[in-house]
Design a protein that fits this description.
By secondary structure, the chain is mainly alpha-helical. 59% of the residues lie in helices and 11% in strands.
């Protein structure tokens, strides 16, 4: 159910990177570039993360980003 909710929420965003970022955060990985196998600028990554923060899916804790709800992290 949560997975479907995330798919619906992120589906309207028009970018698969949001889902990828949530997967990275949920798995404890640190680099979008590893998964996409290409360079992602700091500005682009910052904008993607800020959008997830504004959607209350991700928060910044102690200088790092994390998925707020562990169920969302697992669903991602």
């Amino acid at each position: 159910m949560v997975r479907d909710e995330l798919i619906n929420l992120l589906g309207v965003m028009g970018s698969t990177r949001y889902r990828t970022i949530l997967k990275i955060l949920g798995d404890g990985l640190t680099r979008l570039e590893i998964i996409e196998d290409r360079y992602v600028s700091d500005t682009v990554l910052s904008n993607l993360l800020n959008t997830l923060v504004n959607m209350s899916i991700v928060e910044r804790r102690d200088g790092e980003y994390a998925v707020i709800d562990p169920i969302y992290a697992a669903a991602a």
